[in-house]
Amino acid sequence: MPFELQRLTASGVIHAERTILCSLGASAVLCLSAPFFLNTDRITTGMLLGAGTVSAGLFGVSAQISEGKQKVYRSLQKANLKSLKANLQGEAVYDYVTTAIAAKRRVADYVNRLPMQERPRWIAEYQLQGLVTLREPPAQQSPSPTGIPNPDIADIDEEFVQSVTNPGAMKILQALAANYPGYIRIDGAWIDELCNAASNQDMTLRSNHHFYISGGTQSGKSTLAGVIINKIAAKSQTPAIVIGSDPKDDVTRWLCKFSRKFDGMKELKNWITFATGMIDQQKARVAKVGGECQGVPELLFAQDEVDSVYGGGKGLPGMVDADTAKDLQGFWNYIIKFTAGLKGHGLFMGQSPLSGETGFSRPSLKNVCFIAVGQTSSYILDHPQDFLNVKKEILEILRQACELLDKAGVRYALVIPTRSNPFVALIPEFDIKGLEQKQDSKPNSDTVNSSKNNQQSSQQQIDWYQEIRKWATELGRRPHFQEIKQKWHELTGQELNDLGVTLLLENLGYTDD
């Protein structure tokens, strides 16, 4: 300890002084009390009293000197105790940190032994970046995905993209747009601006790497996502790779082509495994060109029905189990956090904007271009602290614009880019019949049968009542209200209200007692 030598030196001096003090004190007592107990003459008595007085005086002086040194000694003791305490605290912190590191490394060692498709989930959940590795592809593997044809870019007629539905809405917003041009967009070029920022070949200038489009049923989320995919893919230096998950069994009308698409909720696990492998291959491409991404294709991941398949972490009863939901959550957050530098883009669609229902962490959502379609924007503006940071004046302008567009029946979106101001924009009118792109590339050998089945089912008229009846029979019990509502939506793409669900249950023979 730093003060131990001074303390020991002071201790020896204090012990010597205490011995002298004891001697002086004893001499004073003996000399002053001796005349009372001994029969001494006057001269002897005087000498004893004089000696006792001198001893008492020396005792007092010495005691004062010793008291100062004892204060110094006590200060040294306190300093030593503080030093010891600090040293013990440092040792405790060191033990805590090293134990935590060792524990995290043990967890990482365990995760490294898990199947490849599970690892992204645990990397994101336990912050194991840099400790867990994903399997690298063989060195001889081709840079482009083996057996996966690169899709042609779907043609989009820019006249349709730039034409805005309900031109009367422009007149309503002209005054607001004139005063707040950065927050009210009445043109159709905003989609191009977002996609140009996402596909800039100077990686340091990129933004809006990922998108989350939130809106109600039939609000045009998938249509808008398809346009965004096309515009980013069109800027790819080599043919873009577009893979996606459509839990609704291929009933979504997409405006893009896919290299590989996984239809239905039973394909969610295969989607995670395959998409994780695509990320590994993209890493290999980037490493091959020295990490600069030159000549590397844009890699796009499209996930529909995010909140439905995640279900707040519980999945969807009878369709998606909780473990799969957690794996999806980990995979989505992995895409957002770690693929932007690999020219990776996540395009997610769902009805709910809440992180608790979608599985997106708040830090992840800060790295996503958030597009709230239609009335979903009302929730965002009512809870701005979770999504955007603007002055009250701007917030009121955005809210006023959304209310006007709602009353006018105009399709619009509240857009929150990752590096610029939020704004309310009119959604362009897309000619869906003219723009819709089917999967017409030659399928892989492992998808031939499923493609044929899809073609056959699309050529024949389907009795949806028979399909829902067959599903209910296989379920083996009376379907829950929400279950049958969700199933009807998956089969037909139509949303039933409460009365419609009740009538459907009655037609299937499920009546209340």
Structural notes for this entry:
By secondary structure, the protein is of the alpha/beta class. It folds into 3 domains: 4-108; 158-440, Rossmann fold, CATH 3.40.50; 461-507, no CATH class. 54% of the residues lie in helices and 9% in strands. The chain has 19 helices and 9 strands. The protein has helices at 4-37, 42-111, 119-126, 158-162, 168-179, 190-198, 221-234, 268-288, 306-310, 322-338, 355-358, 362-365, 376-382, 392-408, 432-435, 448-459, 464-475, 481-492, 498-507; strands at 184-185, 210-214, 241-246, 260-263, 299-303, 344-350, 368-373, 412-416, 423-426. The longest helix is centred in the first third of the chain and has 70 residues, at 42-111. It starts with a helix and ends in a 6-residue tail after the last helix. Mean pLDDT is 77; it is low at 137-147 and 440-461. It comes from Nostoc flagelliforme FACHB-838. Residues 437-459 are annotated as: Disordered. This is Archaeal DNA helicase HerA or a related bacterial ATPase, containings HAS-barrel and ATPase domains.
